[in-house]
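Aim 2 progress update. The chain analyzed this quarter is reproduced below.
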Amino acid sequence: MSLIYPNVLDDSIIKDRRRRAEVLVFNALKNTQLYSTTKIYYSCDWLNTVSERDAQSDGECDFIITDTTLGVIFIEVKGGFISKDDQGNWYTNNTIEIKNPIQQALKSKHIIIREWKKRWKEKNPHKVAPRVFYGHYVILPDSSNQSGKDLGLFANIKQFGFSEDMPNIHKLVDQFFDYKPVGQKHITYDSLGESGQDLFHEMLTKPLDFEPLLHQKVKINNFKIELLTENQQDLINQSVGKWNRLWVEGPAGSGKTSIALKKFELESSKVNSSAFICRGKNLSYKIKSSFINDDNNLHEKIFTFDSFILNIAKTYFTENQKNYIDKELSKTGYTQKLREFIINKSFDISEDIDKYDFIVIDESQDFEDSWWLLINEIIDLNTVIWIFGDSNQNIWKTKKPEISNLSESFRLNDVLRNSSQIANQSIVFYNGKGHGVNISGPYSSEVDIIKSKDIHGSLSAKINELIFIQSIKSKSITILANANIHEQILQLSDERYEINKDIKFSNSIFLSTIRNFKGLESDCVILIVDNLEDAQDQDFYIGISRAISYLAIITKEDMYEELLSRLT
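Predicted structure tokens:
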């Protein structure tokens, strides 16, 4: 059975009274039985790129029919009762002047065949184009055939189809292909062939995709996201900006860290003592780096909770206590036991610790009860303290921090720092699958879920695609994977790009575990899922929401279906 393009007409075409006759012919051609080697194209626009002598720059052919054996025919359709006067003027219903349909079909034929020959030569420089039959015809579905009527010199009645031909339009198409003007009857034509038909198909149906490269999307999205974040900041300032004690909650991607940093930057210059405290070392380092050239030395006031209490120890502990800490650090490193020791000793001397004027806390969902108790000891009634945390009860079961005079939570409900596609994927792991959350981020690429026989091979291919095809910079790519495969991934580094586990190497692709990248974000994230049994919802929620504009998830073939189930 033949194929027709498009297969379905848009409602706007069907309802357009001016195209009623074309729709009649379209439906007749679609529903008839032509050869399986035949392809039908409706409403083919063309641009004159081959004939400088032709004043007409563009046009349209109502139907083009190609057949690998028979050739190509060009058809113009005119509705209503068609007539032509002795002055060469054509009319529909005797009143409305129309263009000469035979000349329209002829013009389309010449322009499109010339373009086809030009493209054939470009694709096949050492191969002669086949000598194909091509003809031009007219169908008048509302007019009647006056058989044998002399049309004069401009055309032959066999070049026309009428209302009587519509029920058996396949016979009309055969007639058109069989018709040869007197001067062409002796010519033996070549078959169009599949390659020739494919070239017509490419010319007439070539899909267009003006989607920008990923590096352009990243640039555009980052600009949009910063505007959205500024709007979020303005909302908070207008609503609760003057509150001394504020607890802000929101899902991943709602801009909590960005808002927290802006608040810290604005208020720190107004007070004597301030601190920004978070949980993760990598997040702390990134924030410090962003303030490294600040005139107020804000980078010196950025802490993880552990570095914060170490700073207390350095400032207020006795020499014996400091020596004990140094000894433990050199012997076993920083341990839970050492943390508890510092917290307990800090409680003992809390009255001697200078109270802070202003504190911002990020990642509050990761803070332990004893941490809050200590923070409460180093503030007084005049201390301004703003606390930011993730509101996903599915993951953290968060509760109100134990800080005196703290407000009820101010909710951020807009996810705006991830593309909408990425946010929709991460929100699967949020309370009620994101009920009540607004996806406000920019549009970007769909999430790539890659089924792989060789995870490292697929990872290498994805890195090469991002860097050398999509023009993404290495520093804009982060790989999140279980620690047990990090050494294998590091071996993918070569002279073209470097993969590094140290966040201080800012121009490299960064490799991290999911948990160690919490609170951070990257333009492009490649998430490796090689062990579904140990993968928790928390890991998916954090890992997916780290990506701003692009996310690829690579998994093993035998895990693919189960992964898809987890992600829905």
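The mean pLDDT is 92. The CA atoms of residues 172 and 512 lie 68 Å apart. These observations will guide the mutagenesis experiments scheduled for the next reporting period.
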